[in-house]
Amino acid sequence: MTQKMNLLFSVLLGLVQGISEWLPISSKTQVLFASYVLFGLPIAAGYAFGLFLEIGSLGSAVIYFRRDIVALLHDRKLFMYLLVVTIFTAIVGAPLYYITDAYLQHTSPYIGVPMILLGLSLIGIGFYIRYSRALPKIGGLDQMKIKHYIIVGIAQGIAALPGVSRSGMTVSTMLVMGVKQDQAFRLSYLAYIPASLGAFGVSLLFSRHEINTDVQAVSPLGLVVAIISALLIGLVTISYLLKFAKTKSIWKLDIVLGVLALVLGITFTVFYYLLNGVNVS
Fold this sequence. Notes:
This protein is mainly alpha-helical and 281 residues long. The chain has 13 helices and no strands. It has helices at 3-20, 27-39, 43-52, 54-64, 66-71, 76-106, 112-131, 146-158, 166-177, 181-206, 208-218, 220-245, 250-276.
């Protein structure tokens, strides 16, 4: 592969990460699939690569929410929310990542299945929001309690599994709890910042061999290009989604993203077996 082609593929991987991280369609799975098709990376290496590219998405979140980060110095409520959510994310997510990393080394995973289930869930939530006449029971962070933080943290930890979307899990969980749509997206994206730092650390701890495979396949320059690409497109995606979440048409977005997750989950599952010649019987 020529250097120009390598860099082009790296930009494409960054675009996939930068868009899918903030949508409920599992960025890990999209990067895994794209890295397999573009660079021929093994499944386990592609999974680790998806976590490693979260550096770019982390940069997007830090830049966009810089005022909220500064506010942590005097906003005790926001600090406690992020602290509790992050602790329970680690408690649930770290063991799941360790188990998943070992599983992907030896087994052909049904990675698309969780995305299919999440898609159906989002479609259901979209229709619930559309036809429910009840006003939100919680509203925003000021009305949330420790038990809500714990539930969000557990939901985010479960997203360590391949095919499970972090933003999809956290946003859906908060919508079901009655959090307003725009607040659910904002709080989900804020919770991502410490979670992504943890995910990066865990990937370095448990997946050093896979990370080395990624660097050799993509090249150090290609990796940097992918991270920068993810950062820039992530800023645009966050801005657009947060603006849209304030409209009354958010239920349409839930249904559209649910259908997208459903289609991608089915597509990924079918293509995985076609590309690998796996016998599903």
